[in-house]
Amino acid sequence: MPPEVPAGEDAHFRALESLYAAAPINGLFDSRLTITGPGTSRIAFTIEPRHFHAAGAAHGTSYFKMLDDAAFYAANSLVTDRFLLTTAFTLLFTKPLREGPVTAEGRWVSGQRRVFVAEARLIDAAGEEAARGTGTFMRSRIPLATLAGYRPNT
């Protein structure tokens, strides 16, 4: 029996996950995106010593990247035709991230037409929040269907 092909909303979610995996920047991180439902996302990733700053904890670029990605994909899960662009992002660091597994949880907050607001938080291996952020995202002119990694029927 052939594998079941996702349809509708589920196909869009799986295509966004494929798009995330295909982005060259994600070769720098051991990470996996899951769209958990409309307006929600989760990224499981691992902080490694190569992500550290000089004082032995994760550099802020790791925080920003994962928070931005989680919020972005939560928002883009609600948009099936266009790629969204981050227009602003505010980030709050609450504790240092050390080596080990981390989860970024994204959640859509508002907006349904042109501008979307979404937030995300980082949860460390002990279950504690390490950072949170809020971003605004707007529709671009880039159709999702034109992006090589976006594969809605695979």
TrEMBL record:
GO molecular function list: acyl-CoA hydrolase activity
Domain of life: Bacteria
Keyword Hydrolase: yes
Occurrences of domain Thioesterase (ranges): 56-130
Alphabetized CDD domains for the sequence: PaaI_thioesterase
Matching Pfam families: 4HBT
Protein keywords: Hydrolase
Name of the protein in its database record: Uncharacterized protein (TIGR00369 family)
Species per Swiss-Prot/TrEMBL record: Hephaestia caeni
